[in-house]
């Protein structure tokens, strides 16, 4: 699928738009979802320009999943949560709204989720959660 360099996550990766980051290395970035479906909703993205999981080279997918695990562990620890949803929407037909491949981590029950990309969260509160998650990653 053709990659649009102007998508929001590409702009976040280039530093053109702000994001509340919890982890970054040379291949991936993890940051808080601006419209969380539950407290602690975090996104993990590879830096590779790929729209869907199916466009992502297998080795980038494998590496990103390691970071998904790292961030998921930190979320559970930092927010004292048990259980986490890993969601990945590939393609508009599946409901994908931002065309850069990403993994959602949501520490909540499937039955308690708020609407997808529904409502802006309290960004100050989200920043405080991010600080806790960052600290948990640093202590791993
Ligand atoms: P998708 O529908 O593509 O699977 O998920 C896109 C996610 O990105 C949604 O959960 C939505 O709330 C989130 N999102 C949309 N725009 C922004 C933004 O500008 N910054 C951040 N941090 N998240 C965003």
TrEMBL record:
Active site per UniProt: 102
Hydrolase found in the keyword field: yes
SUPFAM superfamilies, per database record: HIT-like (SSF54197)
Highest rank taxon of the organism: Bacteria
Protein name, entry field: HIT family hydrolase
UniProt lineage: Bacteria, Pseudomonadati, Pseudomonadota, Gammaproteobacteria, Moraxellales
GO BP of this protein: nucleotide metabolic process
Protein's UniProt keywords contain Hydrolase: yes
